[in-house]
């Protein structure tokens, strides 16, 4: 059994198993790890043919999975077969009419030792409790599969891993600065963290890393987040707008809060646009939008130029209507926010 750090290192070294069993509390880390495997071996053009997924909770027998594994990949050396939420590898799962019982599990265990070389079979199970541990069934699978325990890196373990990423780049980082950097790494995706380490190393170049460098590079304000969302809207980039929205939601921002911040941003842009067209001074406009920051003012001016007054007025109306609809009916709030973005871009 290996941890997620060792798994990522093995992938880089091209140490690959024919079968992986992921287990742990952190499903997002498991998904990110699977994505790294799929992206390494499956060409995007043929992903529908060479990447198959099965819901472990609905499998009545393992035959469809075996058939998928036995089928040769199309225009590729490898194919990936995933069984997600494979609760049948837990020791205590009850009889729900799906895969259950030692007899069924023994068949699965035997096949795992026979997975053909052209296939990578992946099963994963998300533990229900923080104290859950791999049981007898998972330990049995470990004889023929690479079992990966996927939990979030925390505390000293996370610090040690990130420190090693700086070390391999011959970049020194102080203990206090390291703790500050780690505290900002919310996503437990080692690939993302490594990219952020690389970014900080490039940003500081040959200079010593300071807390100010970390704050300037990574500590974003709410205004910055909403600017990142409104900016692709203003440039008519729908996919990017929706990606930023999903990122904000994934980080835990509430739909109502995001909507109120978008409405606030459009109101400020509307005031700036009116001020500029009325030839008001920079000082007067900054007073009207209640900011003393030259950076914020320049940001608002730059963004306001991408809209007409009519477009900004319509965007504000769309925000108000979306807010009223969310409060007065049981609509899907995320869908309403997505429609708001689509309509704002179309306008």
Automatic annotation (TrEMBL):
EC supergroup of this enzyme: transferase
EC numbers for this chain: 2.7.7.7
Keywords of this entry: DNA replication, DNA-directed DNA polymerase, Nucleotidyltransferase, Transferase
Classification via Pfam families: DNA_pol3_delta, DNA_pol3_delta_C
Classification via InterPro entries: DNA_pol3_delta-like_C (IPR048466), DNA_pol3_delta_N (IPR010372), DNA_polIII_delta (IPR005790)
GO molecular function, one term: DNA binding
Residue ranges constituting the DNA polymerase III delta subunit-like C-terminal domain according to the UniProt record: 224-343
Positions of the DNA polymerase III delta N-terminal domain: 20-150
Gene Ontology process terms (BP): DNA-templated DNA replication
GO cellular component term, pick one: DNA polymerase III complex
Domain of life from the UniProt record: Bacteria
Name the record gives this protein: DNA polymerase III subunit delta
Organism of derivation: Clostridium thailandense
Annotated gene: holA
């Amino acid at each position: 059994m290996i941890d997620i750090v060792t798994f990522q290192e093995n992938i880089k070294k091209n140490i690959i198993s024919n079968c992986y069993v992921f287990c742990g509390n952190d499903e997002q880390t498991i998904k990110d790890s699977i994505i790294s495997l799929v992206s390494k071996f499956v060409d995007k053009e043929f992903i529908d043919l060479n990447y198959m997924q099965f819901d472990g909770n609905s499998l009545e027998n393992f035959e469809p999975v075996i058939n998928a594994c036995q089928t040769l990949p199309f225009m590729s050396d490898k194919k990936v077969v995933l069984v997600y939420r494979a609760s049948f590898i837990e020791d205590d799962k009850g009889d729900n009419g799906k895969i259950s019982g030692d007899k069924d599990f023994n068949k699965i265990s035997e096949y795992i030792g026979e997975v053909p070389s052209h296939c990578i079979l992946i099963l994963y199970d998300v533990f229900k409790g923080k104290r859950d541990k791999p049981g007898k069934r998972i330990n049995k699978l470990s004889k023929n599969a690479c079992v990966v325990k996927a939990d979030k890196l925390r505390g000293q373990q996370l610090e040690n891993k990130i420190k090693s990423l700086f070390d391999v780049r011959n970049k020194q980082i102080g203990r206090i600065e390291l703790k500050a950097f780690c505290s900002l790494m919310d996503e437990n995706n080692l690939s993302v963290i490594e990219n952020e380490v690389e970014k900080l190393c490039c940003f500081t170049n040959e200079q010593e890393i300071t807390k100010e460098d970390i704050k300037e590079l990574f500590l974003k304000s709410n205004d910055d987040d909403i600017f990142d969302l409104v900016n692709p809207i203003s440039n008519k980039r729908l996919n990017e707008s929706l990606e930023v929205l999903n990122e904000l939601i994934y980080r835990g921002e509430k739909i109502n809060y995001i909507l109120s911040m978008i409405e606030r941003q459009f109101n400020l842009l509307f005031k700036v646009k009116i001020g500029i067209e009325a030839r008001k001074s920079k000082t007067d406009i900054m007073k009207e939008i209640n900011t003393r920051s030259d950076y914020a003012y320049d940001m608002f001016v730059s963004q306001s130029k991408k809209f007409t007054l009519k477009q900004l007025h319509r965007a504000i109306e769309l925000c108000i209507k979306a807010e009223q609809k969310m409060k007065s009916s049981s609509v899907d709030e995320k869908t309403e926010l997505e429609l708001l973005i689509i309509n704002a871009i179309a306008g």
